[in-house]
Amino acid sequence: MQLVIISPALLLVGLYYWLLPESARWLLTQGKKEAAQKELQRAARVNRREIPEILFGQLEMEPRLKRDNLLDLFKTSYLRKLTFIFGFTRSSCYGHSFGCVGEIFHLRCLQHILYFYNRELSNQFKALTLTQLLGQALTLTQLLGQALTLTQLLGQALTLTQLLGQALQFVSSQGHFSNSRRISVALDQRSSS
User: Fold this and answer.
1) What pLDDT sits at residue 130?
2) What is the rounded distance in angstroms from the CA atom of residue 13 to the CA atom of residue 104?
3) Where are the domains positioned within the chain?
4) Is there a contact between 79 and 72 (Cβ–Cβ < 8 Å)?
5) d(Cα 133, Cα 59) in Å, to the nearest integer?
6) Cβ(154)–Cβ(183) under 8 Å?
7) What sections of the sequence does the record tag as coiled-coil (predicted)?
C-alpha cells in the first residue's frame, strides 16, 4: 500500500532533476563558463530581461575563483573563534535534545554527543563530495527522494501534496550540506517515544 501511495511522488522526483538547473555560480566555480552563460541567458529569458554582452566578456576575463577548504576556518584568529563558538553552540543545543542538560561529562551524554558528531561530520563530508562530483541539482534530487522516503517510513498518513510539501520544506531547510541533522533528530525522537 505504501508503494502505491509514494510511487507518484517518486516519478515527480525524477522530473525534479530536469526541472532544477545548476546554479550559474556553482558552474563558474567548477570552470564551466559556457554552461553558466547558458543558465544566465535562460534565467534572463524567463525574467524577460536582457544581459549585455559586455558582462559575458567580463566573465571571461575574471580569473577562476580559489577553492575554499575546511582549513580556511582556522587561518585567522577571528574565524577560529567563530568556529569554536558555533561548535560549542551546536553542542549545547544538541545536548538539550539528548536530555544532557548540566551533565555534559556523564557517560551517556558523551556517547550521544560523540555518536552525533561522528554521524554528522561523516555525512557532511559525503554531501560535500557528492556535490562536487555530481553537481547541486542531482544531489538535491537525491535528498528530495530521501526526504520523501523518510516521510513515508515515519508512518505519517499524508496526501501526495502534503508529502511533496514536507519533502521540499525539508530540502530547502537543509541547504546544501547538512542533510542528516533533521533525519537523525527525527529518528532519535521517534525511537525514544
Assistant:
1) 73
2) 41
3) 1-69, 122-192
4) yes
5) 24
6) no
7) none
